[in-house]
Design brief:
The complex is a heterodimer of chains A (211) and B (328). The longest helix of chain A is centred in the last third of the chain and has 14 residues. Chain A is elongated. Chain A folds into two domains: 130 residues, Beta-grasp domain (Ubiquitin-like (UB roll), Roll); 63 residues, DNA polymerase, domain 1. Chain A is α+β, with helices and mostly antiparallel strands and 211 residues long. Chain A contains six helices and seven strands; from the N terminus they run αββββαβββαααα. Helices cover 26% and strands 16% of the residues of chain A. The N and C termini of chain B lie far apart (46 Å). With 328 residues, chain B is α+β, with helices and mostly antiparallel strands. The chains are: A alpha+beta (211), B alpha+beta (328). Chains A and B meet through strand 2, strand 6, helix 4 and helix 5 of A and strand 1, helix 1, helix 2, strand 3 and helix 6 of B. Strand 2 of chain A pairs antiparallel with strand 1 of chain B.
């Protein structure tokens, strides 16, 4: 949902049904913090937090610096939202269980498994996918270039995730040791087994990665 | 996964209110465990309650110890200087949890409350005790990663939390809240050995309760050693591990805390190993004796006898690390 700063001090209460509210308010352009269904009220404390879904709800994301407005169910993962709704298919869906790393994106500077992240939970955060690495003039990110130079792929399906994990690692630690690279990339798997080349590419990108 | 409603409470009060009166409502922290279970229909809540904005995400000094919020990310626990200074075994366990991506998302509360990693539990096809069935498939099945202690049944899982083991060894208490109040439960009393009555859970937390804090007492002057054994160096659960805390009186061990992980349905305190250490001096022989003592009561299943040796070695090496002795 919205970041802490955007949250209203007091939860708003709606007398209209969620359906009617959404109908009258439209979908896009609604601040995420004030969209929702009937308030969940606690009789004793008055504590309330809005219940969203299980049907479609407006979800507003910031991806590669661009705002994306979606209507999706709360169960939609960040990966599926990007691939199926936002036409950002660079990051791959492989295991869909947080065990392979092909879906790795960067959220607020940290690598995450986008298959194991709900899209609704990254509202207000900066999401970066592999598409966001190329600069405006079409130049590849140094990490992407290093993967090409070192031929660090065979089938290439794991590559977007590996590239994102490498970028996240190098943005956190500009000059990691080989041991730190191995540890930093151990959330990604290459089924073709190109790990040696991936390691070489990551080592070659040290110090040159840019945000 | 089944469609669910989502609630994003801003504080504890809203969170516990949102957990009530909604069919099956469950908290979601980093989601690294629950989302995978939901995709496989092992877990099918009607409502998820996000605790990441509701619960404390800070690590705060308190009475010489630390108070760790349940919403603290595992990466932040692993990299916290106070934690590594006061409780090095917690840092050692945290940095080995999962992968960078999992540590970036996963929370302390979620790590403690994650569900078993048993492949029968995690497979929709196997209706085991933990899914409301009437058998455990491990004893007659593929049990190479299952328990070697606490094997009286009915379930033979190993507890999946790495952090729970040093938390218990350092004498942590867990603060728990519900709509009707709050309580503190010692980590030693939080996790439950399975019975037919409680087998659907791994701890005493009720469905409408939230674990909000881990409260660690002042560690005093101690020596610390932690040792995990894995098949692979990456992205793997430990086969077995040990955490050891020794208090010294001169050259002699005056008290010892030895807790084993990945060997029983709960973090497994080894009083046998502790007794083998107290009154002894630090040496490889003392460490080896502690390892021997630790596994004396082991009761492995058909395919996990090797874990007895692994556990023995993990205890020995954890003691040697605490002693500042070189391990291979």
């Amino acid at each position: 949902m919205a970041s802490k700063d955007e949250k209203p001090d007091k939860p708003e209460r709606f007398s209209v049904s969620r359906r009617d509210f959404l109908k009258s308010a439209g979908v896009t352009g609604i601040a995420a913090g004030v969209v929702g269904g009937a308030a969940e009220l606690d009789a004793q404390t008055g504590a309330a937090a809005r219940v969203l879904g299980p049907g479609d709800v407006p979800v507003q994301l910031t991806v590669n610096g661009r705002r994306i407005d979606l209507r999706i169910e709360p169960r939609v993962t960040l990966l599926d939202a990007m691939r199926q709704r936002a036409d950002l298919t660079g990051n791959k869906r492989v295991c869909d269980r947080g065990t392979c790393g092909a879906c790795t994106m960067i959220v607020d500077g940290r690598s995450v498994y986008s298959c194991s992240t709900l899209a609704i939970e990254v509202q207000g955060k900066q999401v970066r996918t592999v598409e966001g690495l190329v600069s405006a003039n079409g130049t590849m990110h140094p990490v992407q270039q290093a993967f090409c130079d070192q031929d660090a792929m065979m089938c290439g399906f794991c590559t977007p995730g590996f590239v994102m994990a490498t970028v996240a690692l190098l943005e956190k630690n500009r000059n990691p040791t080989e041991a730190q690279v191995r540890k930093g990339l151990d959330g990604n798997i290459c089924r073709c087994g190109t790990f040696v080349r991936v390691l070489e590419a990551a080592m070659k990108s040290r110090g040159v990665a840019r945000a | 996964m089944k469609a669910f409603a989502y609630v994003n409470p801003a504080n504890e009060k809203e969170a516990v209110a949102a957990l009530r009166d909604a069919g099956v409502a469950m908290p979601i922290g980093g989601g690294q465990d629950i989302l995978a279970r939901m995709k496989d229909y092992i877990t099918a809540p009607d409502r998820l309650v996000n605790i990441k904005n509701a619960l404390d995400a800070t690590i705060t000094p308190v009475a010489g110890g630390l108070r760790i919020g349940a919403a603290v990310k595992i990466v932040d626990l692993a990299e916290n200087a106070q934690v590594s200074r006061l409780y090095p075994n917690i840092s050692a366990a945290a940095i080995e949890v999962g992968t960078p991506q999992i540590r970036n998302q996963g929370t302390v509360g979620g790590n403690i409350n994650q569900r078993p990693r048993c492949w029968y539990f995690k497979n929709e096809e196997f209706l085991c005790y933990k899914k409301g069935g009437n058998r455990c498939f491990a004893p007659a099945g593929e049990n190479q990663y299952h328990a070697i202690f606490g094997n009286d049944g009915p379930s033979h899982i190993v507890h999946p939390s790495s952090l729970a083991v040093p938390f218990l060894a350092y004498g942590a208490k867990f603060r728990v809240v519900s709509a009707s109040g709050e309580r503190e439960v010692a980590a030693a009393n939080f996790f439950t050995l399975p019975t037919l009555q409680n087998v659907l859970k791994e701890n005493v937390l009720a469905d409408d309760e939230l674990l909000t804090h881990v409260i660690l007492p002042a560690p005093g002057t101690a020596r610390h050693g932690h040792y995990e054994v894995r098949y692979k160096e990456s992205h793997d659960w430990p086969l077995a591990f040990a955490t050891v805390i020794l208090k010294m009186s001169g050259q002699t061990i005056s008290s010892a805390s030895v807790v084993l992980g990945a060997v029983a349905p709960i973090p497994w305190r080894s009083e046998e190993a502790e007794r083998a250490l107290v009154g002894k001096t630090l040496s490889e022989a003392t460490a080896a004796a502690a390892g021997e003592a630790a596994v004396r009561g082991a009761a492995p299943l058909s395919r996990n006898g090797y874990k007895v040796q692994v556990t023995k070695t993990a205890v020995k090496r954890a003691v040697m690390r605490a002693a500042g002795l070189r391990t291979v």
